[in-house]
Amino acid sequence: MKKIFTVLAALLLLTGIISPARAVENGVDATGSQFVVPIKFQFSPTQTGACSGALISPYIVVTAGHCVLDSSGLVTTKVYVGMAGSSMQSVTSSDIIDSVKITANFQNGAGSTVGEDDLAFLTLKKPQTMPVDVLLASESEVTAIKNAGGELKLIGYGRYGDNSEEAITFPKSFTGNYYKVSPLIANSAYMESTVANACIGDSGSPILSITATKVTLIGIHTGATRNKYCSKLENARYYGLFTLVSRYANLAFSSANQTMSTINEQYNKALGEVDSVKSQLAKANASLSNITSQLSTAQSALDASNQSLTDLQIQLETANATIEALNKKLPQTIVCIKGKLTQKVKAVMPKCPKGYVLKPTI
């Protein structure tokens, strides 16, 4: 087995905006797993890389250090983390992280090989759901699992097979054991498996110890000796290198502090928004009270106007009745005729003389 392992990063997938493929070779479907997240990062202005990551708290993801480097070997802040267990293709620019915490001594290995301290902690802007807690392994737990050759599980978003060009969809997983031989690369260990192997895109995948009572993150997958896209079969086994998270508690605490700072900022912003809404509500209530008062005044004026209108209507009806009565008392003029003779008669109740008749009106 080679002592230096080739990086299984998305750096070798770069063909513009890449189209990676599905999970590990010969793995088991892990769609919806809360333990792994899809990661994309800006490698250059025109190129994007893809990796996997371990969700260890609603706001914190652990991945390989080389998964957050740009083409110049510098840490990029343009890292995007999708929802745990979701499709790699669902990751968008709105999933950008809050910050990156990387080991102080990390340098990417020369010639696309794994270097020491290949680990990075990412803090998220948006929290994710974690139904099951994930613990970080202690040194004593790691030693016990190593001595027992304990069972480990890798979950990742690597390619589907050694020659597969199929686009990445959802993650897959496979089981193996803690290999007792220690690598030359510091703070690292091997996972061996006879059933499946890791592929390009699995960098940053969680290496988990899962029992009936707890889930423990042992390490982060960083690389392996490979054929084209996936690990080589050596001595009837596949081997994968991973960085031990137990050696980097300082980064975990730093990320936790960053998370608390982010939450406090969000809380203070929310408080400011609440105060603003309260102020707007107070102004709205004052305006409503003023409008209500104006409406009451206007209603009173309307009632008074309606009453005045009613009074005027009564007065008008009374005046019309009076006029009609007076008209009946005024002298009236009628025209009477007798043959060719006409005679006007004026009286309160005029009457034609004898022999005359009232001239008809047309």
Q: What do you see in this structure?
A:
- The protein has helices at residues 139-148, 249-329; strands spanning 6-7, 28-29, 36-44, 47-57, 60-63, 79-81, 99-102, 120-123, 134-136, 151-156, 172-179, 188-193, 206-210, 215-224, 233-234, 237-244, 332-338, 341-347, 357-358.
- The protein has 362 residues and is an alpha+beta fold.
- It has two domains: 6-258, Trypsin-like serine proteases (Thrombin, subunit H), CATH 2.40.10.10; 331-358, no CATH class.
- The strands form three sheets. A six-stranded antiparallel β-barrel has the order 10-11-12-16-14-13.
- The protein starts with 5 loop residues before the first strand and ends with a strand.
Task: Briefly summarize what is shown.
This protein is 25% helix and 28% strand. The protein is α+β, with helices and mostly antiparallel strands.
